[in-house]
Amino acid sequence: MQKKLIALLIVLFFSCSLIKAQVTNDTLQIKLPEAEKMFLDSNFSLLAQKYNIDAQNALIMQARLWPNPNFGISHGLYSGTLRQFFPTGVNDETTAELSQLILLAGKRNKQIKVAQANAKLSEYQFFDLLRTLKYTLRTDFFNIYYLQQSAKVYNEEITALQQVVNAFMQQQGKGYIAEVEVVRIRAQLYSLQSEYNDLQNQINDTQSELKLILQAKPTAYLEPVPDSALITKLNPTTFPLNTLIDSALKNRTDLMIARGNTEVNKLQYDYQKSLAVPDLTLSLGYDEAGGFLTNYVGIGASIDLPFFNRNQGNIKSAKATINYSLASQKSTEATVQENVARSLQKAFAQDKMLQNIDAKFTTDFDRLMHEVLLNYQKRNISILNFLDFYDSYKQNILQLNSVKFNRVSAFEDINYYTGTNFFNQ
């Protein structure tokens, strides 16, 4: 009877490896190129930033417009002499004036240049948002995949232990199984269930972030399908550090934004200096009978006298802003170079760690599991030792998945920090 029970437990324990997770209609198996296409086609954050580009381009059109001419006309309302409202005829008095503001010191052209620089800056911001969201997408894609691979190990062990616990509970009190073994297995089962729940929460949180990026349905469950062959070919020695840094200095959009801010501030400084020059107003006037001449037509010009306000404060502020943006730009350049160097260093370390893991190690573990099974059948080892060995197998798979993800993530960091897809997986 005891041998039959042991055989039953062994069958139940390993039957979990044949159990597949139930796939719902909302499960979406997706490859990385498909995910990136979904992202580019439907992401609302990108769409919003595109509208911002349109808004900035509209400001260029606005800056090109000339000031509108001003026209004014007046007519007598009441004559005290005639005691008459709106007098007409010889007693009428009508005046009119047409004026035009003329911008001096190149203000209009400087406004156009500022608007163009701001429009270019909005484009840089769009591409920087694209770079950041794409990095998040790709990192989440691989993170979910490897976490799901780890979840399968938990699912298999939990299913097996639950079957064993159920079988033990049926035999409880009959003397075939020691109570201490039942307690030990149930405690391990609860521990695994807790770890599995934490892992599922991590998967779900990452899934939520990725679904927002892809604008996928909230009920969808994403199953990433990476290209294993491309991942295997990743090699940190493919590109030297200098090449990566040069690419980053040319293509990093956050660095372009820093440079763009500096350019905008320089143009703002030129514009503020031009504001120190007063603008000229030309006018054409008509007076029907307001002076010793009737039907008088005259021309005029007016200009502010810059005795007090020469825009000194705004000019000084604009100059200080240039210095601030230059310092920020240099800081960003230093950060870019350090980011690239560190990401390449990390890629070398993660790649070396994976290469040091014997590819046959997992296969050897599988083979040893069968040997352990035979020894357990012969009662050469206890069930606790058997479960401890299985737990070691689980830890090995979890660590291997973690190393694989860290390696892929390191190459994604290089792409992100260089602003170039040097490594495509």
List the helices and strands and how they pair.
Elements: H1 2-15, E1 27-30, H2 32-42, H3 44-64, E2 70-75, E3 78-79, E4 84-85, E5 94-102, H4 107-171, H5 179-214, E6 221-224, H6 228-233, H7 241-251, H8 253-274, E7 280-287, E8 296-303, H9 312-356, H10 361-377, H11 383-418
Parallel strand pairs: 1-6
Antiparallel strand pairs: 2-5, 3-4, 5-7, 7-8
Can you walk through the features of this model?
The chain is built from eleven helices and eight strands. It has a single domain, classed as Outer membrane efflux proteins (OEP). The longest helix has 65 residues. α4 runs antiparallel to α8 and α8 runs antiparallel to α9. The N terminus is likely disordered. A hairpin with an 8-residue loop joins β7 and β8. The strands form three sheets. A four-stranded antiparallel beta sheet has the order 2-5-7-8, with no helix packed on it. It has a two-stranded parallel ribbon with strand order 1-6. Strands 3-4 form a two-stranded antiparallel sheet. It has 425 residues and is an alpha+beta fold.
